[in-house]
Design a protein that fits this description.
Elements lengths: L1 E5 L5 E5 L7 E5 L2 H17 L6 H5 L2 H11 L8 H11 L13 H13 L4 H21 L29 H10 L6 H11 L3 H4 L7 E2 L4 E3 L15 E3 L2 H8 L14 H15 L8 H12 L4 H8 L4 H6 L5 H10 L1
Antiparallel strand pairs: 1-2, 2-3, 4-5, 5-6
Helix pairs in contact: 3-4, 5-6, 7-8, 7-11, 8-10, 8-12
């Protein structure tokens, strides 16, 4: 049965007790609202479709993000960027609200405001995807089964057009010279190895000397460092003669890594070099597109290239491949 008690001025607390169900308590400004809520709860219990939303009503988005950071993000290999997004969300006004109070319109308004600030669609999509996964984790693993994921009710930003940027004639040489002169001795070898191996930035900066066998010209990536899906990393990375020369010329670092660079240091130096050369449209990740395309232009087949890049689907491999028309003409002439 439900009981209603007055608590202070213009506040009424209603309590619902049923055997086999948790004690449910809510506070309203009027008696009518309190009784209406109690009838709704008791009716859902009688029908057998009652879901306890107490936890979702008292857990704020900020608290959920903190728990997510400790239980989910902390187990990820590349967690720095996601932690930055979590800290960003925790500073937003929406973070102070309970999970159960958030609606799709709240996140639609957030999406539109970020667009007005000039952020890329892909960046906004990643921010919303993080919150969406927080809601799904709370619903599936934290005992909030009745929680609705409001992010699923809005139109997500598009992924944007596929990147097809490759190095233009002369850019490779200009970048090599600028990176050699940038003051950071690790930038030029990082640039060259990115093109010679096709490794993503995070994996490239994780490479260790004890993984490298220069005699066999192979880098062996231990299983804990290999992700799954199209973010996967191959177990073995074959090295071109140029890659071997670059690695052989590197000094040994104290921490055992080939390139003792942080992602932040790499990106800051990369931005300075791009600005100096007026190559604002070039991203570091475009070097992976460049590497993949070069593998094909060297005559490797689809399976051989995929075994180097780690792509698991032909469609994703296609998105990273932009063959030079001149290379195709030369191949036709040779045939």
């Amino acid at each position: 049965m439900a009981s209603v008690r007055k608590r202070g001025q213009n506040q009424y607390q209603v309590e619902v007790r049923r055997r086999g169900y948790p004690r449910l308590v809510r506070t309203f400004q009027t008696v009518a609202e309190a009784k209406a809520w109690a009838r709704q709860v008791e009716s859902s219990i009688d029908r057998g479709d009652f879901v306890d939303r107490t936890e979702a009503q008292r857990t704020t988005l900020r608290e959920a993000l903190e728990r997510y950071a400790q239980e989910v993000t902390a187990r990820k290999r590349s967690r720095a960027r996601e932690l930055n997004r979590i800290r960003w969300w925790q500073r937003q006004p929406l973070a102070a609200r309970p999970l159960a109070s958030l609606r799709g319109m709240d996140f639609a308004a957030y999406r539109d405001s970020r667009r007005q600030q000039g952020l890329a669609e892909g960046t906004i999509r990643l921010e919303l995807a993080l919150v969406s996964h927080v809601f799904e984790t709370a619903r599936k693993e934290w005992g909030m089964e009745g929680l609705v994921n409001p992010v699923r009710n809005i139109r997500m930003p598009s992924c944007g057009g596929e990147r097809d940027r490759r190095l233009l004639p002369g850019e490779y040489e200009r970048l090599r010279q600028a990176l050699a002169d940038c003051g950071n001795p690790w930038m030029l070898p990082a640039f060259e190895l990115a093109i010679e191996t096709g490794l993503r930035q995070a994996m490239l900066l994780s490479l260790r000397w004890d993984w490298v066998d220069l005699q066999r010209r192979i880098i062996t990536i231990p299983a804990p460092f290999r992700a799954v899906g199209n973010k996967g990393v191959p177990a073995h990375v074959p090295l071109s003669p140029k890659a071997v020369n670059v690695i052989a010329g590197l000094p040994r670092s104290i921490d055992g890594r080939l390139l003792p660079l942080t992602q932040n240091a790499l990106l800051c130096a990369w931005k300075r070099v791009k600005a100096k050369l007026k190559l604002d449209d070039l991203r570091w990740h475009d070097l992976r597109h460049e590497a993949t395309s070069r593998f094909f232009e060297k005559g490797l087949n689809v399976m051989e290239v995929a075994s180097i890049t780690g792509h698991k689907s032909l469609n994703m491999l296609r998105r990273y491949t932009h063959l030079s028309p001149d290379a195709l003409v030369a191949k036709l002439a040779g045939g």
